[in-house]
Design brief:
By secondary structure, the chain is mainly α. The protein is 51% helix and 6% strand. The protein starts with a helix and ends with a helix.
Length: 101
């Protein structure tokens, strides 16, 4: 999975459930994951702030997916994936525009 993202020049924001998925996390990360505190390592203020910023970005995406899942008509979409992606992007823009009014 990470090889495909890297080849396409893309990245991903992930939650702590994806720790260890990235094959090159230090030099060239393709999946950005928050920091996790342990008993022996408490998070610094900078790490906490980084987790807050990551969570803020992920929340917008998660809300978009939740909104799309509520539209049950999307379960019946049978088309080329490129066209479906374009359709979903347009729907997200429209939904977010309506929500922020």
């Amino acid at each position: 999975m990470t090889a495909h993202l890297r080849e396409a020049g893309l990245g991903a924001l992930a939650d702590l459930g994806f720790v260890g998925l990235d094959d090159d996390p230090d030099d060239n990360p393709v999946i950005i994951i928050g920091r996790k505190a342990t008993r022996n390592h408490q998070l610094t203020d900078a790490e906490k702030e980084a987790n807050r910023l990551l969570g803020r970005e992920r929340a917008a995406v998660e809300h978009g997916f939740a909104n799309l899942k509520s539209w049950r008509i999307l379960t019946k979409v049978r088309m080329n994936t490129r066209h479906a992606t374009t359709l979903l992007r347009a729907l997200l823009v429209l939904a977010n525009t309506e929500v922020h009014r």
